[in-house]
Amino acid sequence: MPPGELLGMSHTLGHRLRDGGFPSPSETRKTGVLIVGGGISGLSAAWRLAKSGVDDFLVMEMESEAGGNSRGGQSPLVAYPWGAHYLPLPTREAIYVRDLLAELGVLQGDPAAAKPAYDERYLCATPQERVFRHGLWEEGLLPHRGLDAAERAQQKRFHDRMEALKQARGRDGRRLFAIPMALSTTDPEWRALDQVSFKQWLKDNGFTAPTLYWLANYACRDDYGTAYDQVSAWAGLHYFACRNGEAANATSDTVITAPDGNAWLARGLAQKAGDRVISGAAVWRMEEGKSGVTVDVLVGEKSVRFEARQLIWAAPAFVLPRVWPAIPADLKQACLAGDYAPWLTANLHLSDLPEERHGAPAAWDNIFYDSPGLGYVTATHQLIRRRLNGTVLTYYRALHDVAPAEGRRLLLETPHAAWAEGILSELERVHPDIRKLTTRLDVFRNGHAMRRPVPGSLYHGQREKMATFRSLRITLAHADLSGFSLFEEAQYRGVLAAERVHLMLRGLLR
Ligand SMILES: Cc1cc2nc3c(=O)[nH]c(=O)nc-3n(C[C@H](O)[C@H](O)[C@H](O)COP(=O)(O)OP(=O)(O)OC[C@H]3O[C@@H](n4cnc5c(N)ncnc54)[C@H](O)[C@@H]3O)c2cc1C
Q1: Which of 70, 345, 450, when mutated, tests ligand 1's pocket best, judged by the most ligand atoms within 8 Å of its CB?
Q2: What is the whole-number distance in angstroms between the Cα of residue 36 and the centre of ligand 1?
Q3: Annotation: CATH topology of 9-72+260-336+461-505
Q4: What is the pLDDT of residues 447-479, one digit of tens each?
Q5: Which of 94, 426, 469, 505 is the one with CA 20 to 30 A from 177?
């Protein structure tokens, strides 16, 4: 068994937030804006504040480094992701994503162009993806080998339907499924789709082909960590119909990626905040007063009290009631209403490229048709070097086949060796020499990785209470306000929160 560690979000600290027992604050500091959480939403709030000329802010991040679900690691050979790994080409609505990419030099020319050109080093090199099915790799995501005419016809009908949904608009003139999701049509006819599951929608619309069911389930597991019979049809359709971004120098299905996944985006956002991002700082108590918010933070072994004029909550919603004793009752109910999908990722360090099975050549994203894991991405795929001494594969698995609480129990109790054995035997099916080549295998556990968009949760439950919450001193951010977790959603919520706080600081909003 290769050496490696069990890593992940610090559950001991997380459980301490629930159970209490923190030292009393030994000093008090002041700041203009305190941002809680250094994931994409918190860093985006900092990015936006800094761009607006506000520099009196601090970001408190509980873990040893910022980035949240978009963190990465580094080996002597290559950087690699621990979570988020790609960004689709930004749509016309995703203006903040375009701004950021332009600022980082990746989007070239006018950020508002219909088809901007992108730095080719960040456009996923071909082949982008392949799927392993019935002992063979097939190019692309949707299996096509050995299918009968009826199944192929259904695949085409599904594809045409999604293309039509991409173009269509609701009665208010907005796209049916936009990203950020808050910009989608408010048409009740389309929002009603939130009440059935995606699997049910497929059935109701005469889609029965096994490969289509697999694709829909894969999409929901991949983006929502949840099986398609437990995902809102609105969210399922959003996956397929929201992404219509185009590029001057790539096909529209090309994704933007880097060896370390989306960690470079987190770093890019954090640049503007500089040393105002404080890691290893867990917020454990907050209280809203007349002139500001008092926040107690565990930094190392001692607690520090911060007095801030404004607070942006950019940590997961379920944590908020644990640290804000006086949270309004309906907000508390909304924060606790949803559940979170548990996830596991693993990085396998290989001494050489692995042996290949028959079929399509190695791609960036290598997907398994019939397996507990989703597949793996290859960190060295974007490197333009002729000979590499090895690679790093990032294996992804959402624990969608058990209840979330059971998934968290498994994450806590399963030893490293058991995960490593399971992952190696899964990968051995596609790369027979994987055990021989793996020099290190680290496992990353994330018990509350992303809020699950279950039927009813987006437009018929509590989510909107969080998205519309207003108080004088506290503004919410985080992807949880969208009901599902994507870079575009997290960034949008962070930017919106920063804009509101900026107006509050200037006395232009009450
Ligand atoms: C395995 C995996 C793969 C993914 N792949 C993609 C992908 O390819 N593309 C994509 O767009 N999205 C992907 N995502 C979704 C990803 O979650 C979002 O892109 C984004 O990173 C979410 O950012 P966030 O700020 O909303 O949340 P988070 O990443 O959850 O950030 C919240 C932060 O708050 C901190 N925090 C919590 N409590 C406290 C406290 N009390 N005090 C201080 N800090 C606290 C946490 O440590 C964390 O850093 C993936 C997610 C996972 C888990």
Answers
A1: 70
A2: 13
A3: FAD/NAD(P)-binding domain (3.50.50)
A4: 999 999 999 999 988 999 999 999 999 999 999
A5: 469
